[in-house]
User: Fold these one by one.
Assistant:
Number 1:
Amino acid sequence: MNTQVIIIGGGVIGIACAYFLYRRGVKVLLLERNHLESGVSGVATAIVSISGTGGTPEELRRLNNAGGGRNLHARV
């Protein structure tokens, strides 16, 4: 695999970034030292906001209502 982007951290933000980059055809490598969504950086709020620029508002609202990125990693 010729990786174009490496994302460090499998929290809600890292998973969301990987997912939306992948949907745009970017070859992504997501690195997480434990299992996905296992830790908190203390910086991210772990909230997927509908005010973001990726995806449609309906899609982001659905992700937020479903518990943020809890199931997002299964789609990547």
Note: Strands lie at 5-8, 28-31.
Number 2:
Amino acid sequence: MIPKFSHLFHHGNDQVDLRDLQPGFTYTVDLVFITHENQTTKVTNTKPITFTTLPEEDPYDFEIDIRTGKVSSQTAYLFYSGVPEPEVKYVNVYRVVYTNDNERTDSQAFKIPKTG
């Protein structure tokens, strides 16, 4: 494997940002010291560090919260939240599935998200 190098940074800096890393990969990092030409002492880093970048975030990994509103003898109002905006980017059609415990039949209702 060919190592990658950061840009050079001044000895007055004590930090550097590594960019364009791959998600979920393990990296080993070491410092390479460039000394003055006439310096006889070799400066080295004695202990490289290893870290693993976080996995890539899934934009569709969100939780929907559903709750009941007003309930009557034949209707129930439902409220949901948790879909990021704009909804149309994440959800094409909503499907509500519900069962009647006495009849054991499935019913469904659809909702198309607002587009503007």
Note: Helices lie at 87-90.
Number 3:
Amino acid sequence: MLISGTANTILMKLQNQTPGVDQVPFQHPYVQCAIMFVGEFLCLGVYGAKKLYLKYYGKEEVIGSPGQAQAETLHLKTNINPLLLAIPASFDCIASTLMNIALTMVVASVYQMLRGLIIVITAIMSVIFLKRKLYRHHWSSMSVIFIGVFMVGLAKFIDPKSKGGETKIGGLALLVVAQLFAGCLLIVEEKLLGDYYLDPLKVVGLEGMWGIIFWCILLPILQQISCEPSQFCPTTSVQMDCSLPYQYAFASPLHSSIASA
């Protein structure tokens, strides 16, 4: 998870910095988020293939597994209304979009370190909304994390153009807000799915389905909103985001390989 998460940040930043159409930076945070949900939706295909395999070979799914045994003991539900998963998908959509925008404004190392703030935010939210109890070692660990994140953010706030690349203050703010929504996502999922025993592939796939639906609505709207080229708008158009230059850029082998990864 650490390796794939770091690789994701590096590849996304590399994609943002690679010259696209007309040699301008390839920055399409909204489309990138939409494609992320397409990747999540593909998990439904893996889930379906898994079900067919088990059915074809006459095997019962996860019979005898610790999770299944616990589910039967606790009388957990094994089916969920797909509409309920639209709630965490909406938080995921907002958080991922804000983080993608922030990544165009801050260096990758600062981006990755500031994301550690989600540990503190989620822990505090779990106390407030889930009535969890945290002990001294939890609070001590969170204090160390918060101090580290604060020092990183403060250093870039004082000297945005320090060694390693320029960081925009707006990007730092977006990252903090994004972690709030990401924390809400985790809390909602734990609260919502606490009474269920579900295949993770199915959950991720259904959330991806809702994400695609959201972006099928949002992308056409964003392409109609006038916006001067800035940190919130791609430099390739006067719309908040335009998927057409994104499609043209796939003619480049480098962009294709990065996007596929």
Note: Confidence is low (pLDDT under 50) at residues 250-261.
